[in-house]
Write a structure and sequence with these properties.
By secondary structure, this protein is an alpha+beta fold. Helices cover about 25% and strands about 40% of the residues. It has 6 helices and 13 strands. Strands 1, 2, 3, 4, 5, 6, 7, 8, 9, 10, 11, 12 and 13 form a 13-stranded mixed β-sheet that branches. A hairpin with a 6-residue loop joins strand 7 and strand 8. It is elongated, with a radius of gyration of 29 Å. The relative contact order is 0.07.
């Protein structure tokens, strides 16, 4: 008996045809989301640029302006990148503030090659005026901070609005979980000294946790700059004394505003000349020191007093293996 082949039924599911439909809708969804993201980016980029520039200018009374070459926003991943940022003061406005006795004691100049914002919620920015993100990464920034001693008479009218009151016209709140400064170069110029004193720090890492600026946090007095914590870490720091007679070396430095401590590991004060050369260089008799501290720890530091009045106030100083 000869077997006859069984022909496929016309009612058999056409799997290739089904997969073609699935592939079509997947491609359509990708193209739709891509087009939607592109459209949102076109609308969002000029909005973000305008809001950021206006917020900086208004919140600083025209003292500072910000510029950047390009901003790219990815609506799908919730990220944004700014390139070649320049945060610079207007010297004419600053001189005017000095004459009006309303100038700040510190002036900042900042340059950043790239700034990355992650998990930002652009719809909250656009519709609710709330800037929220998980992290902000600032790679290799250059910060110059200038201190100038200024008097403020009691009868001077100064704008005492806090950061929230200045920004409330543009944003209802700012919430950033983590801000990182990686490999920062920092310069501090003290113009109150006879000669402008320059302090330079390199390879500085700063981690800022829990930044929140809103109507409630603006009244909080326990936080420094609206943050839960500001931690600083620096390694292999070297500094030459102003008279050029000593080198100061620090293996590691750490500090935290939340835990209110500062810790120095491997502090050394090294004379640059032997005893004979030391006396010849100074041309007057003076004692010559060589110091070594394995660890120096300051606890319960008042960082607010240190920031505003340059006063170092702490409860305990511990020196180990000196």
């Amino acid at each position: 008996m000869q077997n006859t082949p069984i022909e496929p039924s016309k009612n058999t599911p056409a799997f290739p045809r089904l997969w073609k439909r699935v592939l079509f809708w997947v491609l359509f969804l990708i193209l739709f989301l891509g087009g939607f993201a592109f459209f949102i980016n076109l609308r969002l980029k000029p909005f973000l640029t305008r809001q950021i520039k206006e917020a900086i200018t208004t919140s600083t009374d025209g003292l500072y302006s910000i510029s950047f070459d390009n901003v790219s926003v990815n609506i799908l991943t919730g990220s944004a990148t700014f390139k070649n940022i320049r945060f610079i003061p207007d010297t004419l406005v600053y001189q005017k503030m000095i004459l009006q006795k309303a100038a700040p004691k510190h002036l900042f100049m900042v340059e950043v090659g790239q700034l990355t914002l992650r998990r930002i919620h652009p719809f909250k920015v656009y519709f609710q005026q709330k800037l929220e993100m998980s992290s902000l990464l600032i790679d290799r920034p250059k910060v110059k901070m200038i201190y100038q001693r200024l008097s403020q008479p009691q009868n001077t009218v100064i704008d005492n609005r806090n950061a929230y009151q200045r920004l409330s016209k543009y944003l209802r709140s700012i919430k950033i979980d983590d801000i990182k400064f990686q490999d920062a170069d920092f310069q501090y110029i003290d113009k109150s000294a006879r000669r402008n004193k320059l302090t330079s720090l390199r390879n500085l890492n700063i981690d800022i946790a829990g930044l929140l600026i809103d109507s409630a946090s603006s009244a909080a007095t326990t936080k420094l700059y609206y943050t839960d914590n500001i931690s600083i870490q620096m390694q292999d720091y070297e500094y030459r004394s102003p008279n050029g007679m000593y080198d100061v070396k620090i293996k590691e430095f750490m500090a935290s505003t939340k835990d209110k401590y500062a810790r120095i590991v491997g502090l050394r004060l090294i004379p640059r000349y032997n005893e004979m050369q030391f006396t010849e260089k100074l041309k007057v008799w003076a004692e010559r020191f060589a110091l070594r501290f394995d660890e120096v720890l300051l606890e319960q530091i008042d960082f607010k007093a240190f920031n505003t009045d340059r006063l170092l106030v702490a409860s305990t100083l511990k020196i180990s293996n000196s």
